[in-house]
Description:
Elements: H1 2-42, H2 45-60, H3 63-73, H4 83-108, H5 112-120, H6 125-155, H7 167-178, H8 182-208
Transmembrane segments: 63-81, 181-202
Family: Belongs to the binding-protein-dependent transport system permease family.
GO molecular function: transmembrane transporter activity
Amino acid sequence: MNMLRMLLPLLGEGMKMTLGLFVLTLVLSLPLSLPVALVRIQSNKFIQTLTRTYIYIMRGTPLLLQMLFVFFGLPLLGLTLSRNGSIVLAFVLNYTAYFAEIYRGGIQSIPQGQWEAGKVLGLSRSFTFFKVILPQANRVVLPSIGNEVITLIKDTSLVYTLGVMDILKAAKTTSMNFSSLVPYIYVAVVYLALVAVVSAILNKIEARGGGSYVKN
Length: 216
């Protein structure tokens, strides 16, 4: 009982951070990923190279390392962010890169004939993209986007390394005080519940597009 009295308030505080970071990352990275994907496909070679390098770095290094670099490294360059600001920036940069590559693959999977048909019908390239190509690409990329969203829920646990209270740190703090693994079991149940809720939402979204989302 004493353990729960300590864990529950910490868990409530940690949940705010976990859910806040989850929502902020999605709200910022998903819209940013589409223009990054388009630049990766259509722009000139120099910008393509810059975009490819950014995506390579984000996908080729651990998110934890990126988070530490933003928090400890940017001040050396004259840019100091708050602890929470550094975490959000690192997560958004990382997930924008992953989502951009998913979108790039989805857009390029649409047959070139779709573009040509739009041109024959006298449609502008932008109209063809937003009304013909993008809706089809969205259906293609949704399962992969869904997998990344599930991963994001679990990745939020990395913030405790910077001393921020999330639900994993709530478990760790309580566990150290009571020398027990039970708080980690409670937190595992919380993570499973979050994944179940998000997966159900993704299932409904994809069902409208004629498919179903399968959890890993």
